[in-house]
Every structure is written in C-alpha cells, then in structure tokens.
Design goal:
289 residues, mainly alpha, elongated
Length: 289
C-alpha cells in the first residue's frame, strides 16, 4: 500500500471512530428507547468501518475530540436528527475518494455502499418531536416573514416614523400570531389521522411567528432612520430564511436551493410590492414625515 492511500484510510478511520463515539454518547443521553436502539446500531456500523480499514492500515488512530464535542453540542441545542444527518453529510463528502480506494481494495466500495444504505435506512426512522411539528413551525415562520416584511415595507414609506412603524408592526404581529396559532389548533384538531397534539402544534406556530416578528421589528425600535431599519429588517429576514432552510434541508433531506429561493422570493417580492403601495398611499393621502 502506498503512503497516500494509507493516509487516506487512516483519515477515514479517524472519521469512523469519531462518529462511533458521537453515536454512543448520543445513545447514552437518549431517553427514547427507539432512538437509543437506532443510534446504537449505527455506532456498531461505524466501529465495523473502523476495524475494516484497520486491517489494511495496521493502525488504530483515536477519535477527533473537538469534532465529537461539536456534534454532541449541536444535538443538544438543535436536535438529534439534525446533528446526526449533518455529521453523515460530512462523511458523504469525505467518501468521494473511496472510488479511488476501490481500485486498490476492490471490496471496499461494496462494503461502503452496503453500510451507507444501512445507515441511511436507520437515520430515516429516527423519531423526534420537533420534526413532527416542523410543518407548524414552517407555517408560523413563513407567514410572519411574508406578512411582516410586506407590512413593514409599506409602513416605512407611508409613515416614515420608526417608532410608529414598530408599534403598528407589533400590534399587527401579535394579533396575527394568535390568529395563526388558533387556526393551526383547529386545523390539526380536524385531521383525525394526525397524531400531533393540536395544542403543541398551535404553540409551535405561535412561538415561531412571535420570534420572527420580534427580530424583524427590533431595528425599528433601535434606529431612528426607517429606511435603514427596513434594510436591516429585510437582511434579517434573509438570514432567518437561510438558517431555517438549511436546518430543514439537512433534517428532512430536502433541496436547499429551491426552498431558500422560494421563501426569499416570496418575502422580498411582497415587500417590494408593499413598498410601492405605501408610496402611493402616502401620495394619495398627503401624509408627510
């Protein structure tokens, strides 16, 4: 075995043993018996990967401690499913070189394909509450982004007073959040086959809405210039869309670009139309700053 190939396999061993340690640590902290079993089985797969490559390298490298800590913290704050799928995506990127490895070790590609399929099957049966209610979060988040960016854009040109815009935006946002939460409660309750709790679904929707409203309105409370505040608010909306879309694309295996540009296009498109409407209303009603 040449030096370059051996180095690649040792790096692969480090990744496998690191992920084995992460899965075992997550399994120990997991209260749900189903998820605990899934994580334990994946950890066993990663250990087999590690041992297999070790038969060719003759080495037993240790895990990467900082990476282990990173994914444990991600799981604690952002959810188990997101953490393990993000880790697996990193492993997929690292496995591009295994086709080259297979030229020297023919059975390597077959083993990797079998193990990958097994791991993906296991990951797809993870059961986590936050993902059961992700539709409710999307409802609150997307509605708040579209409605508030549009309202704030229209109010900015119509009123040109930051604190007045913030006050109207808060009243509108809080009222809309309660309305959306109530609608989600009734909608979930009417779906007989849905196992979700109507109360939890409404809470996820309402909280997502209120948090988004708070972030979007904050610049108008802190800055005197309504145009600058609007610019920061719109930028904040794009950041929220980016972060949430990335989270969903990883946790739910969805296309990132399509969802991001769809949500961003809707929010900014409504904001642009509302901005123009605000200007027309200001002219029609003769409102001066």
């Amino acid at each position: 075995m040449d030096t370059i190939l051996k180095r690649r396999l040792i790096e692969a061993q480090k990744s496998e043993i690191t992920e084995c340690h992460v899965y075992r640590a997550l399994a120990q902290r997991c209260k749900d018996p189903h998820n605990k079993d899934v994580l334990g089985r994946i950890a066993d797969d990663e250990k087999r990967h590690y041992d297999y490559w070790g038969t060719h390298t003759g080495e037993k490298p240790g895990p990467r401690p900082w990476q282990r800590l990173k994914f444990i913290l991600i799981a604690r704050f952002l959810g188990l499913t997101f953490a393990v799928k993000l880790m697996e995506k990193g492993e997929e990127q690292a496995q591009i070189n295994y086709e080259e490895v297979a030229q020297t070790i023919p059975e390597a590609l077959k083993i990797m394909q079998e193990e990958d399929e097994h791991e993906h099957q296991l990951l797809n049966i993870l059961d986590e509450e936050v993902l059961q209610y992700v539709g409710s979060v999307v409802l609150g988040l997307s509605d708040a982004l579209v409605e508030l960016t549009g309202a704030l854009a229209g109010l900015t040109l119509a009123l040109q007073n930051s604190r007045l815009i913030a006050m109207i935006g808060l009243v509108t946002g809080i009222a809309a959040s309660m309305s959306m939460a109530a609608s989600e409660y009734l909608s979930t309750k009417s779906e007989e086959e849905d196992k979700k709790s109507p109360l939890k679904a409404s809470l996820y929707t309402g909280v997502a809405y209120v948090v988004t409203v708070t972030i979007l309105i904050a610049p108008f409370l802190l800055l005197g210039s309504p145009l600058v505040a609007l610019g920061i608010s719109l930028f904040s909306a794009l950041v929220i869309i980016y972060l949430f879309t990335f989270y969903i694309s990883v946790a739910k295996d969805q296309d990132f670009k399509h969802r991001f540009f769809e949500m961003a296009g809707l929010s900014l498109g409504v904001a642009a139309i509302s901005f123009f409407i605000g200007y027309l209303l200001r002219v029609v009603f003769g409102v001066e700053a």
